[in-house]
């Protein structure tokens, strides 16, 4: 622009001189005069051309050749401050040449640090993904038995001997299922529905894989199989320290129609709304539990802790008759309306219980009767941070409950903090986005261990959204519609970043720390 600006005045002046000289008449018509004026015009033309060329030479930029010293200093010197950000799309670009009203070296002031970053230009690298919750690290531990030996086709097929109910195979983003047995109610249906939604959420993100799945409550692959050259990998809803079963998100995250339990995301929001309407200090100052007492010894022990004419253990225990609830239209079993006590008790049934996440969401202090099993997220919970540990046998259980309630009522601020930590964990680390991310990372890490190329097994059929929803009515169809992932998947949001595995020292320290906290609570109870 500066070169053009330098040329313009001189050209205008030259053209002006020519325009002024051209109409001048010859004086007296003499030839000498004509020759004189012709010479004058030629001289003016030569002068204009020389001045224009001179101007171009004067403003031409000079680019110095880089010497070795300059190149070396440029490589080792500090990075220059970033220029103004670029914005994709329409609108005024901050990278345009400054207008004539601004000096040539004009630059906008630096952005205050507290402002959010400017949008990335089209085609720029996406921002780094957030790290997944800490409990994702247990994925590495659950798959550790196969880390060195891998997963062979023989090992997968041997897992069928442990009463696997169906086989899941993913090839080129399509789901195929071979059925070997019946699952209770619609556990298998909504588990497979969840896997279908994962494929829709992250199209092309789930690698080819092949696995066996059991939908019963208790893990069955004994730790003795750990010493087998190829232990059988078996997926289910829970695991334990004594078994090798691989925990996977349970069916109820997509709804439990037989018990009128809504899909997790919708129910979690309803529980949050109920929490806002029921201040912790205004809730009943007792421990609450309601459920089926006939599915585990721990629950039968819990019945003895109910208030009676002889002793009040600060517990309010209610047996749930699901048959009668079905007849009454589930009027007395709305989980979003059961956060009415300051304390809620979690106790396992035959195995782990799906009720755990609903109890944690309540803002109440979760009193966790010492569990034997774990689901995929519960190892991310810490005693006295997310829950209060309770002993698991006889009268000792009742005493633990009474001590916890007395302590919490005497220290309401600390008790409320435990409840809030648990509900925050559920809200932030157990939202459906994170559930899908856990599924994705678990399956991807498992697929890396396969020592064969997955293929559709004999007897398997493709499962699609249309085929699995065909013929579904009532709550089954409603819950599927409510949890169907949109065609655009995650809407551009990628999965969180899988954290690294525990070191042996980290794992040992974590287990020791949690055991020490439990022993400390028991020591308080005994004194």
Automatic annotation (TrEMBL):
* Biased segments, Pro residues type: 106-120
Report the residue ranges that make up the Glycosyl transferase CAP10 domain in this protein.
205-453
- According to UniProt, the name of this protein is Glycosyl transferase CAP10 domain-containing protein
Q: Which organism is it from?
A: Panicum hallii var. hallii
According to the record, the residues making up region (Disordered) are: 72-125
Record-annotated membrane-spanning stretches:
33-53
Tell me one Pfam family matched here.
Answer: Glyco_transf_90
Cited SMART domains:
CAP10
The alphabetical list of record keywords is: Membrane, Transmembrane, Transmembrane helix
């Amino acid at each position: 622009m500066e070169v053009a600006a330098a040329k313009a005045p001189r050209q205008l002046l030259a053209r002006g001189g020519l325009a002024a000289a051209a109409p001048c008449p010859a004086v007296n018509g003499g030839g000498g005069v004509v020759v004189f004026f012709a010479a004058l015009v030629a001289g003016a033309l030569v002068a204009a051309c020389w001045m224009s060329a001179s101007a171009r030479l004067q403003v031409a930029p000079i680019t110095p050749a880089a010497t070795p010293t300059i190149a070396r200093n440029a490589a080792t010197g500090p990075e220059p401050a970033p220029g103004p950000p670029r914005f994709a799309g329409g609108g005024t670009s901050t990278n345009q040449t400054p207008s004539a009203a601004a000096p040539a070296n004009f630059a906008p002031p630096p952005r205050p640090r507290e402002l959010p970053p400017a949008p990335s230009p089209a085609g720029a690298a996406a921002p780094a993904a957030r790290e997944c919750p800490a409990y994702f690290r247990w994925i590495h531990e659950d798959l550790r038995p196969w880390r060195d030996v891998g997963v062979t086709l023989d090992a997968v097929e041997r897992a069928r001997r442990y009463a696997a109910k169906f086989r899941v195979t993913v090839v080129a983003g399509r789901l195929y299922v071979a059925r070997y047995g019946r699952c209770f109610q619609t556990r298998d249906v909504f588990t497979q529905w969840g896997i279908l939604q994962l494929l829709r959420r992250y199209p092309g993100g789930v690698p080819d894989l092949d696995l066996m799945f059991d939908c019963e409550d208790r893990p069955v692959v004994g730790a003795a199989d750990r010493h087998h050259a190829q232990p059988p990998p078996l997926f289910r809803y829970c695991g334990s320290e004594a078994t090798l079963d691989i925990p996977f998100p349970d069916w109820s995250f997509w709804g439990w129609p037989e018990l009128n339990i809504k899909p997790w995301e919708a129910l979690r929001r309803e529980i949050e709304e109920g929490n806002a309407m029921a201040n912790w200090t205004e809730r009943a100052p007792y421990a609450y539990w309601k459920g089926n007492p006939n599915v585990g010894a721990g629950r039968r022990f819990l019945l003895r802790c109910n208030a009676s004419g002889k002793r009040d253990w600060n517990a309010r225990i209610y047996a749930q008759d699901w048959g009668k609830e079905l007849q009454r239209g589930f009027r007395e079993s709305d989980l979003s309306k059961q956060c009415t006590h300051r304390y809620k008790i979690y106790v396992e049934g035959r195995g782990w219980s799906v009720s755990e996440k609903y109890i944690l969401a309540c803002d109440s202090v979760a009193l966790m009767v010492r569990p034997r099993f774990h689901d995929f997220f519960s190892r991310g919970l810490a005693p006295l941070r997310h829950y209060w540990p309770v002993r698991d046998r006889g009268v000792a259980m009742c005493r633990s409950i009474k001590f916890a309630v007395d302590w919490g009522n005497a220290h309401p601020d600390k008790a409320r903090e435990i409840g809030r930590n648990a509900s925050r964990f559920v809200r932030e680390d157990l939202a459906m986005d994170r559930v899908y991310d856990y599924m994705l990372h678990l399956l991807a890490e498992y697929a890396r261990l396969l020592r064969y190329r997955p293929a559709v097994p004999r007897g398997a059929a493709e499962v699609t959204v249309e085929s699995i929803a065909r013929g579904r009515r009532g709550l089954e169809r409603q819950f599927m519609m409510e949890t169907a992932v949109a065609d655009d998947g995650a809407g551009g949001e990628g999965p969180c970043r899988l954290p690294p595995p525990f070191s042996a020292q980290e794992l040992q320290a974590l287990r020791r720390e949690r055991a020490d906290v439990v022993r400390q609570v028991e020591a308080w109870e005994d004194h």
